[in-house]
Amino acid sequence: MTRKIKMLVIAGARPNFMKVAPLIKSMRARNEQEQQSAGKIDYRLVHTGQHYDGQMSDIFFGELGIPHPDINLGVGSGSHAVQTAHVMMRFEPVCEVEKPRWIVVVGDVNSTLACTLVASKMGIRVAHVEAGLRSFDRTMPEEINRIVTDSLADLLLTPSEDANENLKREGVADSKIEMVGNVMIDALVSNLQKSRASALSEQLGLARNGFIYVTLHRPSNVDDKQSLSAIMEELRRLAGELPVVFPMHPRTRKRCEQFGILHHDGNRLRVLDPIGYNDSLFLTENARLVLTDSGGLQEESTYFRTPCLTLRPNTERPVTLTLGSNKLTRLERLADDIAEVLNREPRFGQLPPLWDGRAADRMIDAMLRR
Ligand code: UD1
Hints:
Elements: E1 5-11, H1 14-33, E2 41-47, H2 54-64, E3 71-72, H3 80-98, E4 102-106, H4 110-121, E5 125-129, H5 141-152, E6 155-158, H6 161-169, E7 177-179, H7 183-196, H8 200-204, E8 212-215, H9 219-222, H10 225-239, E9 244-247, H11 250-259, E10 269-272, H12 277-286, E11 289-292, H13 295-304, E12 308-311, H14 319-322, E13 326-329, H15 334-343, H16 359-369
Parallel strand pairs: 1-2, 1-4, 2-3, 4-5, 5-6, 6-7, 8-9, 8-11, 9-10, 11-12, 12-13
Helix pairs in contact: 1-2, 1-7, 1-16, 3-4, 4-5, 7-12
């Protein structure tokens, strides 16, 4: 009988859920093929609880078919140090009991960093999904999380060539790096049918190519009163041209309320509560333009060839600029950049290599080979 490999798969915050879903699906399929030994991979799903609201967490489990977490650390919100420390304190005893051979962490959130620190000090191997991405901007908490996670991980599963180059430049051994493609696209491809059945366009009266989809939540955009006021003012102006749909992250809503900024304006600037995965894919596929500071939406726009303006000075996903439909923008240039996009063809760009919906299978292969 084959010896089972025990893995803990970690998910903490919203952008993690669409990355763990394809991994778990691939592990399940692998186990079903191995009937004689009743499965090769003994995995447990650990939710750190970094995101906890129904609309930030539960809805994604339902839509993406992710099993109920085996363990929930229930850490909730806090400063970076508090949140990271709470995950570490609660994850260490889980590792002591479960004794996994591997932990699998995804993305760049505080939970990714915290679990990596715990596991690597306990001699447990760490596989990092979406390794090697760099914005070269250490004012972003995610950049710190990426650098530390990658320097400790044993297996670096990268989505694109630029990520391999970044890791090699930082001195990571070739033998630890495997370019496997973009796991976000696996989730996207398997949910297309459901997203195309979204009722959102009817509810909001939206026409294809007839609206702008906005998501903004980065501290650099929303934690500063002046910047957030200017953004909301620009969105109100824009809504005079085309309807704007803005599902608002709790961080952004909290800041609008704290700064006394009006965040809705009649029925052309539609500020909604956070929406689920399928509705978000639907909006990305059908928008005339996506305006965002999210990492995932830059990639999803590239997949759909929908023009995307990223309100950030840099991106850790340069392939969305070179091959895809993404362009960086800043507040002072935003109105001009929007006008330029609205004047060009409504779809452009190419799909980067290995964004083919099979990345999770390649990741599991890479882990099993070791
Ligand atoms: C985190 C990630 C970020 C990711 C984002 C996606 C880090 C450092 N940041 O940022 O990379 O792009 O998730 O959403 O890990 N809140 C709720 N309900 C929730 C979760 C949070 O109301 O379910 C509110 C709380 O007021 C909290 C604030 O949102 O203080 C921010 O949450 P937090 O997890 O600290 O960071 P995000 O901004 O969500």
